[in-house]
Structure formats: structure tokens, C-alpha cells
Amino acid sequence: MTLIGWAQIGFVLLLVLALIKPLGIYMAKVFSGEKTFLAPILSPLETGIYRLSGINRDKEQGWLGYTLAMLAFSVAGFVVLYGMMRLQAWLPVNPQGFANVPSDLAFNTAASFVTNTNWQNYSGEAVMSNFTQMAGLAVQNFLSAATGMALAIAITRAFVRSKAETVGNFWVDATRATLYVLLPLAIIVTIAFIFLGLPQTMDASATATTLEGAKQVITLGPVASQEAIKQLGTNGGGFYNANAAHPFENPNAIADYLNIISMLSISAAMVYMFGQMAGNRKQGWVLISSIAILLIAGIGAIYWAETAGNPILTSLGLDPSLGNMEGKEVRFGQAASALYTAVTTGLSDGGVNSMIGSYTGLGGLVPMFLIHLGEVLPGGVGSGLYGLVVFAVLSVFVAGLMVGRTPEFLGKKIESREMKFAMLAVLILPLVILGFSSVSAVLPAAVAAIGTPGPHGLSEILYAYTSAAGNNGSAMAGLGGNTVWYNTTLGISMLLGRFGYVVPVMAIAGSLAAKQKIPSSKGTFPTDTPLFAGLLIGIILILGGLQFFPALALGPIVEHFAMMSGQTF
Amino acid sequence: MLKHLRPAFSLVILMTLVTGIAYPFAMTGVAKVAAPAKAQGSLIAKDGQIVGSALIGQNFSSDRYFWPRPSATSPNPYDPTGSGGSNLGPTAAKLKDRVTGDVDRLKKTGIATPIPADAVTASGSGLDPDITPDYALAQVERVAKARGVETAKVGDLVNAHIEKRLFGFIGEPHVNVLELNMALDALKS
User: Fold this and answer.
1) Residue B158 Cα, gap to closest chain A Cα (Å)
2) Which residues are CB-contacts of A218 (< 8 A; sequence separation ≥ 6)?
3) Mean pLDDT by 10 residues, chain A (569 residues)
4) Cβ–Cβ of A201/B31 closer than 8 Å?
């Protein structure tokens, strides 16, 4: 670790910090239905969309209606995307002439993009036509993110409103999230990306004759526009197989920082927006500080582990000063790689600028652990906020038990109904991850897909289900996941991880919205203090982390000791 | 649920038109005007012939050129139609064998030890256009000898091609291999 490395990390995080407040206030306006400065341009488009879709913008929905609308929207997105992949050979803008995508891969990919996971069992440049990429995959990058944002708004309103029967209108929230937040930001980021060197063209490729006379086919496409929404929507699905390690997705350090800032800003700002809308800005900052502490610890741990390097390679005569460079790009080095990896897993982005599968044991443990924590640091756009609210609700309850006060959060009493649903939500992750991982660890067809045998192989499997259930999308990509078993089970994991979590969360939203907002009294446990921040960190670590510790001990931790003693597999 | 299907499908289709068609095509139009060369992949031409992209690495195996990092793309190294890393774990025997082989090969060229780590590790993209200044400088003697040029001259060329950190802290110092090799060819003539 070097001072310059930490300066890079600090620089990026400070830029994000500066964006939190303005962006948070802007989003609070958008979702309160207020007019923003973009209204003159976007308002006619918005109204037109409502009219054509038969949406009554003034009619609000209860939590169940809101949830059903969200599910219908996801089903429609799934069907359209699945159909597009299965028919891409006959659709326009297919300059490479790619064939239709096989059914199991199309199922996996549709589930992946609709749930904001963006796990990719395919190599973008070799399977997906430019049309599928931009009119299918990139559209879900917008819509799955907008869906997450809408859900987060709904649960925020549960704390704003008192004795309310409705939590908002899903169609309006999703439309406004897309038009007023994601699209304008995507346009700004795309233009910046174009100047930084990302290709943006409808051409498929250029053919070069290298200096040594070999033929090199350089694949092109609308990369910049897709990269922008991939990050802003915390999707993470790359145009290319190598994702943001690919020089066309991420050509230099400035582009790398912009990638990271794009994925972090909206999620972090939503936490501020939560405090702002609920009438307690300090609450927003307390939540943001808890997140920041955990995230910076994660960045530091990866940075340290990867800088320490791989003693097996050092013993062969390598200079250890660069750290573990397998799977990393020279232009990023260790600090920018560690930063990207911690952010992409603390969020639910899942894009990578270095290959996590080639990380050291401990360097690979941290990103997995960050996903296990529930991706609330600060999580995916929307999904991070509602995940964080669930943890906050649990913390308030535990605090209430410890000091004998009535558990309240932002003026809402937390009772057994909310607790039951919160526990239901947080249990879905270990159930799916540990369930499918243990089956895959003994199923011969599943074991055959691992890339590096030994403890690393278990890590690859565990990481795959962690990433799928957590809707992250990053991978220890040595695992050859494009088989019927993995396509199917990972697809199911993604759907359960998204919708199995969201439905209980919406039930909490409905139940809290219906409660009366009570003013805080002397008997209230304050939730906007450093004490609460500490408690929240503890709950996140215990609930998120400890459940997976035995599995992590068998994978990455064993691998670490094997690596230190020079053992290979 | 059924009453939600009409808004669901029409919203998906309308948003496809806005975010899936209008947005990328408009951005492509902007790119054509604002930065046409970059939008087309930062291609480099020599004598009217495209020789590669400034951003994409390419393979060099001749002693007369600076070598890039190992590339894990298959079947050929530095193949942009199948980007990716080796994804081998740190304890993989395959990784150790590969690095051992590459270390031996480099030692035969007379490279000083310890060897810069980027010289024998595969990048994440398989298309890394850069090497570290250390690895570039370590190749100077071999290249100079193969070309029959003064070592100092080649060394100066490398030093002129080191891209330093912006403002002293942004990014990592690196050398673009293709650009360095093109300058090397120009040096001769």
C-alpha cells in the first residue's frame, strides 16, 4: 500500500461525497412529484408515456398493488428480453450475424438483467448482437434499476406518511426514475466517456494488420452509452466479456474513476434522500457514515491482501513490489483495482476492472463477504436503500430489547409483524447461497465446471451463488457457468434473491405506512447518533457475515494458508 | 395482476424506444461529431493501413520489438473477439507452470532479476495495451541488440514514452507497447 494509492482512493470517495447532497435533494424532488428544471423537456414525454400505457398518474396503490405492478413490469421485461435473444438472428442491427441464443442461456441472461444482477454466462462480443445489447440488455439496465429505485421510494414513503393506505404509484415512480434521474445522468456520463476514448458506433468491428503482420479483428459497438447506464444503474453487465478491465470499457484512470463515481453516487445519494424525505437529514448522514466505515474497511482489506501478493509467484523470481498482477491491468494497478472491487460488491454492481477469480485467498474473500453483508454499502440503486432500512429496523428492535424501550424508527413503532418480514427477507440470502452451493459442491456435473481445483474451486462455486442471490453479477470466472445446471440454478437464485427479498420488504412498507407517525419522546431510542451507527454496523456484520463464515473458512481462508505454504492444486 | 399487464408491456416497449433506440443512436450521433476517431475505437493507421488501436494491445514475439504482457485470450493471444483473463486462482498449478515457463524464457533473453510482475502475469482483459516502465526498461538491451541500435538510444525512446501519473497521483505509470514499437520502427528509418 502506498500513499499515492490511498490518495487515489480518497480522491474518488471525496468526489462522491460532494455529489451526495445535490443529487439526494434532486431525487427527493423528482419522487415527490415536484417540477424539476428538466420538466420543460421531459414532461411532455412523461405525459405521453402515461397516456399510451393507460396509466393514471394520480391514482396511488397500496403495498400489494404496488408490488403486483412491480412484478408485472418485471415479467414483461423478462418476456421481451427473452424473446429478443431467442430471435436475434432475424432481428435488425446484427452485423456479426450472431445466431439465436440457446434457451437455458437466454433464461439465465433474462433473469440476470431483469433482477439487476447482470451475471453473464456469455461473452458479449461473441454471442449478443448489437441490437440485443442496446435494445434488450441496456434497456433492462435502465428498467431494473428504475424498479429498484421505485421500491426504495415506496419504503421511504412508509416513514413519511402517517396512517396511509397507499405507498405511491409504481408506474409513475419507475417512469420518473428512468426519465428524470437515469436518462439525463446517462447522457452526461456517455458524453464524458466518448471524450475519454470509449467507442460509440453502430459498426461491428475494424480489422487491423498488426506490426508483426497478424490479422486483428477489433470489436466495436455502442460501448459508451451502454457503459454509462451499466454503472449508473449498478447493473455491471459489460459490453465485453472482460467487463471494465477491457480497455474499450475503461481506457484510463480518469475513465475508471468516472465508472466508480457513476455507480456509487445514486445509491449513496438515495440514503441522503431517505433522510431528507423522512424529515431527518441527520439520519441520512448517520446511515451514510456507517456504510462508509464498512466500505473503506473493505477497500483497505483488499488493497492490503493484493499488495502483499502471491508468494508462490515471488519464489519463481518475480519482483513482489507490484503485488498480485494476475488478472489486473497495468494502467489501474492495485489501489484502483481494490477500490473498484470493493465498490462493485459493496454495491450490487458486479462490473469488474480486474479478475476477482485471480485474487489471493483473502483478497477474494472480501468481495464475497461484502455481498454477504447484503449489498448495503450503499448497495444497488434502490435495493441498497431498502436493504439498509431492513437492517436499521432490525437494529432498532435489538436496541429496544437491550435497553427496554419501545422500538421506534423515525416515528414508526417496530412490532412483531415488521420483524417477521424483516427476518424473512434477510434469511433468503443464506438459504439460496448455502443451499445451492452445497448441492453444487457434491454434484459431479457441477464440480466439473470449476477452473482451479482445491479450495479455490469451492470459492468459485460459493461466489457464483453469492453473486446471483445477491443480484451482484461479479464472478470468480474460472467457473465455466454456461451449463444447463448453472444457467438454471443461478437464474433461480437471482429471481429468489430479488423477489424473495422485495415482497417482504414491501409488506413492511405497507404495514409501516398504515401506522401513525408518533413524535419522539424521552422513551425513544435515538437513531441519528454515532451510537446507533455503531449498533447498525454490528448488526450488519453479525447478521450478514457470520452466517457465511464456515463456508468462507473452507474456501478462501484455506486457500490463503495453502498459498502461504506454497501449495498448488 | 392481469390489469397490470397492459401498462407493464406498453411501458417496457415505450422505454425500449426511448432508452434502447433513441438514446444509443443519439449518443452515436453526438460521438460522430464530437470525437469521431475515438468513437471508432482510436484506430492507428500507418501508410493508410490500420495497424491496430491505441487502446488495444497486440502480440509481439520478435526480439526486434518490445513485448507486451502474456495474454489469456484463446486460441490466439491479444484476440479482441474473446477478451478475458486466465481466471486462474493463486494456488492453481497451471498458473505456477505458466509463470515458470515464462520466467525461463525471459531469463534466456538476459533479463535482470527480479522480473517485473507484469512481464509474466496475464492481464484481466487479455488486451492490456501497456507494460510498466520497469518491464520496458528491462527489455531495452535485447531490443537494441536485435536491431543493432545503440542501447542508450532505445533507452531514451522508452523514457520518452513513459506516461506518468496525472497531477502526480492519478493513474499508474505505464508504457503503451504499440506506440513504443511504432516509434522504434520510425527510429530505424
Assistant:
1) 16
2) A205, A206, A207, A208, B41, B43, B52, B53, B56, B80
3) 96 97 97 93 96 95 97 97 96 91 95 94 89 94 97 96 96 97 98 98 93 96 96 93 96 98 96 95 96 97 97 95 97 97 94 96 97 93 94 93 88 94 93 96 95 96 96 94 94 96 96 93 88 95 88 96 96
4) yes
The grid cell for A542 is: 453479525
How many CB atoms neighbour CB A444 within 10 A? Answer: 6
Beta strands in B37-93 (DSSP E): 43-46, 49-53
The residue among B56, B31, B18, B130 whose CA lies nearest residue A223 is B31
Any idea where the domains of chain A sit in the sequence? 24-276
| Geometric angle at alpha carbon B119, from B114 and B123, rounded to 5° | 135
Q: Which residue of A201, A329, A333 is in closest CB contact with B124?
A: A329
Q: CB within 8 A of A13, min separation 6: which ones?
A: A292, A296
Rounded Cα distance between B56 and A247, Å, is: 6
Give contacts of A 42-71 with B, CB under 8 A.
45, 49, 52-55, 68-69, 71
Q: End-to-end distance of chain B based on CA atoms, in angstroms?
A: 74
Closest CA relative to residue A440, chosen from A417, A456, A460: A460
- State the pLDDT at residue A543: 85
Q: Do strands A412-413 and B43-46 pair parallel, antiparallel, or not at all (unpaired)?
A: unpaired
Q: Is the pLDDT of residue B189 over 60?
A: no
pLDDT given for residue B187 in this prediction:
87
pLDDT-based confidence at residue B188 (cuts at 50, 70, 90): low
Predicted pLDDT of residue A558: 97
Q: So what's the ipTM on this one?
A: 0.97
pLDDT confidence of residue A363: 97
Q: Report the distance separating Cα A336 and Cα A329, nearest Å.
A: 10
- Alpha-helical (H) ranges within chain B are 5-15, 23-34, 36-39, 93-108, 133-147, 151-161, 177-188
Looking at A90-182, list the stretches that DSSP marks H as alpha helix, in order from N- to C-terminal side.
103-114, 124-127, 130-131, 138-160, 170-176
Contact B91 A567 (CB under 8 A): yes
* Chain A contact set for B33 (CB, 8 A): none
Q: Is A330 helix (H, G, I), strand (E, B) or coil?
A: coil
> Around Cβ B168, how many Cβ atoms within 10 Å?
8
Residue A235, C-alpha cell as written in the block: 447493473
- State the burial class of residue A530 (Cβ atoms within 10 Å of its Cβ: 0-12, 13-18, 19+): exposed
A490: nearest Cα among A139, A104, A214: A104
Q: Cell digits for A340?
A: 473498484
Cβ contact, residue pair B9, A80, below 8 Å: yes
Residue pair A159/A122 in contact by the 8 Å Cβ criterion: no
With an 8 Å Cβ cutoff, are B121 and A478 in contact? Answer: no
- pLDDT at residue A444, rounded to an integer: 95
Contact between A216 and A210 (Cβ < 8 Å): yes
Alpha helices in A443-541 (DSSP H): 444-447, 455-469, 484-513, 530-539
Owner of C-alpha cell 442491427? A93
Report the relative pairing of strands A215-219 and A408-409 from DSSP bridges: unpaired
Question: Are residues A42 and A180 in contact, defined by beta-carbon separation less than 8 angstroms?
Answer: yes
Look up the pTM and report it.
0.96
Summarize the confidence of residues B74-92 as an average pLDDT: 95
